[in-house]
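Practice set, problem 2.
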Amino acid sequence: MGVSETERQPSVVEPGLDPGWIARTVAVALDEDLGAAPGRDVTTQATVPADAVGAADLVARQSGTVAGLVVAQETLSQVADRFGLDAPQVTYVAQDGDDVERGQVLATITGPVQVLLTAERTLLNLASRASGVATATRAFARELAGTGATVLDTRKTTPGLRALEKYAVRAGGGTNKRMGLYDVAMVKDNHVVAAGSVAGAIAAVRATFPDVSIQVEADTTEQAIEALGAGADFLLLDNMPTPVLAATVRAVREREGRDGVPAHVDLEATGNLTLDRAREVALTGVDHLSVGALTHSAPILDLALDLRSS
C-alpha cells in the first residue's frame, strides 16, 4: 500500500528532506493524534464507511510562499497503512517554494475518505508550519534583493522540526547557517569566559576539532578586530547599531588579505533585525543577516483541506 519515492516527493527544494526523517516525523505526529499505532479516529471511523472514496483539495487560505507539500504523500500513506486501506494519490498543482494566492488550490488528493480526514490535521500542521517559515523568509529575501547580502536562519527552531524548518528557509529563498552544534564552531561570550580569551577559545577548538570552521561573536569593532587577529574564519556582528556596524565592516575590509587575515572574511549581522531595517543593515556591506524570527516567530500560513461534495 506504499508509494514509490518518485510519487512521494514530486516537489522538492534541493537539498531535499531526508525521506527517513519525513517518515519518522510523520509517525510521531500521527501517534500524537491517533494514539499509539495503529491508533484510531473515533469520529471519522464511526461516520465514514471504510469503502467510501472521494477527493479533497489542499487550498491556501492566505497568500504566501508554500513549503512542506513534500510531506503530504507520506502522511496519507502512513494513515492508509494503519487502517489497512489504499494510499490516496496526490496531484500537485503548486510546488514547494511557489508564491501562491489566497484561495489557490495547491494539490488534489483522491482516495479513501477515512484516510483523507484522518490525515488532514497532521498534513496541515506540518505544511502550514513550513509554509509560514518560507513566507517569512521570502519577505526578507525580497527586501535584500540587489544588496549582495543573504538571509540566514539560526538554531532557534522547533524541537524535532529543525530539518523541516530549515528546508522551508531554503524554499523561501534563504540560506541555512549551521545545522547544529556539530558542524560549525561559534565562539560566544560564555566560551571566551570559559577559555580565558578569544585566542584561547579559538586555539582550543582548532586543537580539538581541526575540521570545522570557527565563527566568533563580536559586540564591538574592537572585539571584531581582536577575533580576526586570533584567527577567526568569520564574524558574527551582534546587536550593533547601524553606524557601528558600518564602521566595523570597513575596519574588517581594510585588514583583509593582510597579516594572515583571509582575502575575504564573511561578516554576519544579527540581533534586532526586523524587516524594515533589513536593507539598511545589508547596505553596510555585510554578507549575511541571520534572523531567528524566521523560525521562532513566523506564524503559520493558513492552509485547508476541503473535501469535495459527492
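Problem 2, part (b): a different protein.
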Amino acid sequence: MTHTIEDRAGELLAGRVPFVRATVVRAQVPASARAGDDAIILADGTIEGFVGGQCTESSVRAAALGAMRDGESVLLRVLPEDAGPFPDTPGARVVVNPCLSGGAMEIFLQPRLPRPLVHVVGHSPIAAALAELGEPLGFEVVRAGTGTQPPATPSALVIATHGGDEPAVIRAALDAGVGWIGLVASPRRGAGVLAELTLTEAERARVSTPAGLDIGARTAAEIALSILAEIVQEVRAGRLAVPDREPARAPRLAVDPVCGMTVAVGPDTPHLVLDGADVWFCGPGCRDRYATTAGR
C-alpha cells in the first residue's frame, strides 16, 4: 500500500511530533515541482516528499524551520535571480534564490505543532463538558478511566471528582511536572484539600482552586468553559508549556561560498569538510564546483 504524505502527517500528529506541511501552490515552468506537490519538514530539517529540487529545498527548509519556531503559517515565494513576470501575492515572504535555473514558485508552509494536552480526572458532568468543549479550543483532552492514557505528560490536569483522594492526585501531578492543576471544589473544600499537602511556593502556584476564571458560571458547561478559559490564559501568558513539544530553535544558517545563498543546515544539506571545517552548500552543483576549484 502506498504511504502518502497524508498518512505520514497522520502518524506524526498521533505521535505528537511537530512538523511543517509544505504544499506547492504555484510553479512556473521550468520548475521541477507542480502545484499540489507536498512534503513534510521535521524539526531536524529533514524533508519527506517533494516540493522542488535541491535549491528550492534549501529555501523551503530555512523558511519551514522559522515557521515551526514562530508557530505561524507562511506563504513562501521562491524566485530565481532573473525572475520574469510572476503575479505578486500580498503578504508572501519572498526569497531570491540565485541557484534556481528558472521557474518561480509559491509554497504554503503550515506548522503542525502538538496541541496542549489536558488530562481530566473524574466522571462528573463538568468532566464530560471539558472533553466536549476542549477540542474546538485546540486542546487534546484525555479523560481518566476511559481506557486511554495520556500520550505524554499533560500540560494541564483538571480534577473534577468532587471527592476521593484528591491530595494524592495533586501530589502525583506535581511530581510528574504537570504545569497547571485545577481542582473543581468550593473555596472552603479546596483550601481543606491543599491543607493536607506540604507544598512549596512554586508548587502552590501551579494549583488553581476553585479552578476556572470567575465568570459567574453555574452550569456544568459554564464551569468547564471557565476552566478552559483559565488554561488558555496560562498558555497565552507563556506560563504553560507543552511538555512534549521541544522548544523550536532558530535554524543553523550558513552561506554557500559559490552562489552566496543562505542555507539552513540539516542532515541532507550538501557539504564538504575542508581543512577540518564544514562548508555548506545550497545543492550538489555548488558543492561539486567548489570541490573542483579547491582541487578535490
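Answer key, part (b): Helices lie at 5-14, 54-70, 125-134, 166-176, 187-195, 201-205, 220-236, 284-293. The domain at 117-236 is CATH 3.40.50.720 (Rossmann fold).
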